[in-house]
Amino acid sequence: MWIEKKLGDLCDVKGGKRLPKGGEFSNKGYPYIRARDIRDGRVTFDHPVYIDEKTRAKLKRYKVKKDDICITIVGINIGDVGIIPAFLDDANLTENAAKLTNYKNTFPPFLNYYLQTQNVWELMQLIASGAAQGKLGLYKIQQVPVPVPDLSVQMKIAAILSAYDELIEINQRRIALLEKMAEEIYREWFVRMRFPGHEKVKIIKGVPEDWKLVKLESAFKFTGGGTPTKEVNRYWDGGDVNWFTPSDITGANGIFLERSGEQCTEEGFNSSSAKMFPAYSVMLTSRATIGAVGINLTPACTNQGFITCIPNAQYPLPYLYHWIKLAKPHFELLSGGATFAELTKGTFKRLEILTPPEFIITEFMRIESPLFNSIENYLRANRKLIETRDMLLPRLISGKLSVEHLDIQFPPGMEEAISG
Q1: Exposed, middle or buried by CB within 10 Å (0-12, 13-18, 19+), for 47?
Q2: Full-model pTM
């Protein structure tokens, strides 16, 4: 039987704490969780910050423990949730988030999944209030309704959804490993210059004999972007043209991007200065954020903050991608602008790219192409896993899809949570 309860009846809802006056972040010490670390049901800590012993002593009441659930309560990401992993047990929590702790007959992973549903997220947005910016008060979080089944049912629902998440995480680790391998091969051949047969090649002024430095304007095609006006709704409503912005690149989980955050219509695209480029081009952010790189998997366009490079036979995708990615520090040095940093196309086209002989590129592609193909395949597999999980989530969490009579085998990642 499912019984609706208030969130405050299932756990304690407590706030975090900002750094005290004079406190600063450091690159070592005690972990400090910020709102940016909380999203998609996880606390990732991919960009860690720490506090020292003195600062931590002043924040001793504002720590989290394993399986606490954090909810962002201020800013543009109000209502994002994430469960604390074991490695962040005893970390400190920002004032921009609340924590759920001390559960009462509630399985934390089940509650974490429930709080990720679209209905709950929309409710969080609705009840947030504030003059300057929205804020989700602790007392409002306590009033959020939660349909609660028996504890055994909670565990079964969480087990099904966790199985998908663990497969997704395994694939993400595979993708990260393949990306690292692919980049290391490029560095070995074209940065350290230990390419096949390098022992027999003479180096002249840092460049192997018979290799060339070619200006980019003569090496491959590249294009800029544009933005259809946001004041005309029909340029965006129901659009299916992928239109990438820098945040799509910086927020991506890997090198390939299947879909942009926003899509414009064909009419909107035609009304703008945006340029369509083919799939498997290299999108380079060239304004404000300089040097973020992504590869589109469908024909697409971008806003003005990009220089998009089109691979060709002499500069195939893996070679061009790695060269552009590793040239980021150089791009940043060449970027100027009164309002924001910008790498202009005029500056870009005058740069030179190292150009190996054809047989070197052919051998490099023989090794790199399978790695890039595997990365793409794992990405597509994850998309299907995510789609299936997201389809199951509201049906399981509402009880519409019954699990009471199912014999569920718990995934490895849940065994410790159940035993605890």
Answers
A1: exposed
A2: 0.84
